[in-house]
């Protein structure tokens, strides 16, 4: 058993201070995960604010998207094109454990805040650079948005109906993948700092992240010499493993071995399928999936999706009805797992915002702060910063 007495009531990143120069989604998603876990995140914004403050949906003039990915942070306004702004940023970096930026390579250097300079001045600093294509490579200076990375990573080429055009995934998965790996990189570098005493420059590319998030496609391309193709809502390698129509909607099923397929065949009142040579192995079932689909669709035609799932689940077959996004967030499972919790916003009242998904023994969930107003903490942070520098013995 773990001894929770030492950790009870404490979030794992309490005491870690993060200086966040990032904006839009990938970098802010990274630092939101860290704020959820107790880190003090100081978000540095230009006078006009993060671009996401001006992107909807809006409520009473406030961007709800900004609220979602900047929860629990402090906001300080600095003009990095001015000497005073740069001086304040440098001084803050010396007080922080982690710095996160997601400008195009070279921009932080032009501000006088590049990794080489700050890591030399602050040897324990973990400096995380998040960009579209990383700090090296022929594409390093190309502009990158999520849709660009989806297009270049192969994800769009694999997504969509078998006879249809390539399709974008339903959310900004390149940005989210980059944010997750940036947080992972920061944590690894902090862990290593405890042993070595030195920080590191962490170079994270959205392109690298999304390509790495597709291990099945990587196996097929790198080792099998294949080019993955669009298969709609059916698995490219296994069957029955996908979405099938019922009388009032659709349901999903996942069968990955022969024993499970025999149980599935019996559940859909077609036990003879288990002895059909066309379906004798996973590879053969995938090859003959259209014929298999006819049996499944015929069985489910007079059933609701929920009834079809109930029959399959009763036979211990992995199956599910399709949920909308509100249904997923409102489900008893999401509620039980604490995937979102309420925060109080001074203008908007109570808001329900997402929370990082990992559970740590002894660490509380919820009880977080809303996203900050632009520059809400500028005066207090700068005042404390300069006081600390004038009286270092009192820190």
Shape: elongated
What CATH architecture of the largest domain would you give? Answer: 3-Layer(aba) Sandwich
Distance between the termini: 38 Å
Instruction: Tell me the name of the CATH class of the largest domain.
Output: Alpha Beta
The rounded Rg comes to 25 Å
CATH superfamily of the largest domain: Crotonobetainyl-coa:carnitine coa-transferase, domain 1
Strand count, sense and barrel status of the largest sheet are:
6 strands, parallel
Protein model, in words:
The chain is an alpha/beta fold and 395 residues long. It folds into two domains: 4-213 and 333-394, 3-Layer(aba) Sandwich (Rossmann fold), CATH 3.40.50; 241-321, formyl-coa transferase, domain 3 (2-Layer Sandwich), CATH 3.30.1540. The protein starts with 16 loop residues before the first strand and ends in a 5-residue tail after the last helix. The strands form four sheets. Strands 5-2-1-6-7-8 form a six-stranded parallel beta sheet, sandwiched between helices. The protein contains 17 helices and 13 strands. It has helices at 26-36, 64-69, 83-94, 107-110, 115-121, 146-153, 155-158, 173-196, 206-212, 215-222, 258-267, 282-287, 289-300, 305-314, 325-329, 332-337, 378-390; strands at 17-20, 40-45, 58-59, 62-63, 74-77, 98-101, 126-131, 201-205, 241-245, 250-254, 319-321, 340-345, 349-354. The radius of gyration is 25 Å and the shape is elongated. Pfam families: CoA_transf_3. InterPro entries: CoA-transferase_III_domain, CoA-Trfase_fam_III, CoA-Trfase_III_dom3_sf, CoA-Trfase_III_dom_1_sf. One of its GO terms (molecular function) is transferase activity. Residues 377-389 have a biased composition (Polar residues).
């Amino acid at each position: 058993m773990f001894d929770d007495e030492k950790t009870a009531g404490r979030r794992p990143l309490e005491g870690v201070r993060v200086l966040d120069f990032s904006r839009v989604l990938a970098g802010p998603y990274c630092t939101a995960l860290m704020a959820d876990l107790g880190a003090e995140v100081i978000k540095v914004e230009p006078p006009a604010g993060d671009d996401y403050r001006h992107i909807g949906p809006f409520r009473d003039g406030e961007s709800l998207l900004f609220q979602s990915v900047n929860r629990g942070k402090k906001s300080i306004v600095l003009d990095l094109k001015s000497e005073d702004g740069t001086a304040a940023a440098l001084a803050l970096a010396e007080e922080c454990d982690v710095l996160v930026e997601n400008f195009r390579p070279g921009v932080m250097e032009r501000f006088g805040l590049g990794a080489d300079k700050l890591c030399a001045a602050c040897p324990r600093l973990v400096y995380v650079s998040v960009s579209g294509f990383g700090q090296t490579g022929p594409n390093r200076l190309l502009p990158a948005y999520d849709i660009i990375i989806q297009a270049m990573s192969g994800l769009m080429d694999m997504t969509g109906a078998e006879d249809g055009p390539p399709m974008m995934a339903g959310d900004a998965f390149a940005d989210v993948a980059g944010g997750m790996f940036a947080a992972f990189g920061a944590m690894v570098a902090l862990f290593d700092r405890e042993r070595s005493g030195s920080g590191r420059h962490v170079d994270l590319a959205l392109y690298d992240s999304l390509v790495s998030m597709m291990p099945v496609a990587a196996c097929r391309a790198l080792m099998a010499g294949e080019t993955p193709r669009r298969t709609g809502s059916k698995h490219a390698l296994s069957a029955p493993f996908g979405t099938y129509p019922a009388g009032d909607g659709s349901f999903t099923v996942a069968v990955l071995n022969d024993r499970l397929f025999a149980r599935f065949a019996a559940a859909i009142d077609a036990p003879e399928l288990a002895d059909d040579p066309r379906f004798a192995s996973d590879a053969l079932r995938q090859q003959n999936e259209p014929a298999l689909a006819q049996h499944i669709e015929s069985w489910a035609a007079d059933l609701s999706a929920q009834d079809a799932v109930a029959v399959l689940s009763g036979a211990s077959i992995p199956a599910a009805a399709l949920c909308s996004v509100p249904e997923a967030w409102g489900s008893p499972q999401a509620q039980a797992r604490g995937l979102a919790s309420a925060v109080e916003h001074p203008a908007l009242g109570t808001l329900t915002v997402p929370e990082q998904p990992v559970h740590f023994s002894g660490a509380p969930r919820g009880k977080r702060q809303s996203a900050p107003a632009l520059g809400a903490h500028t005066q207090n942070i700068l005042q404390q910063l300069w006081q600390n520098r004038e009286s270092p013995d009192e820190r």
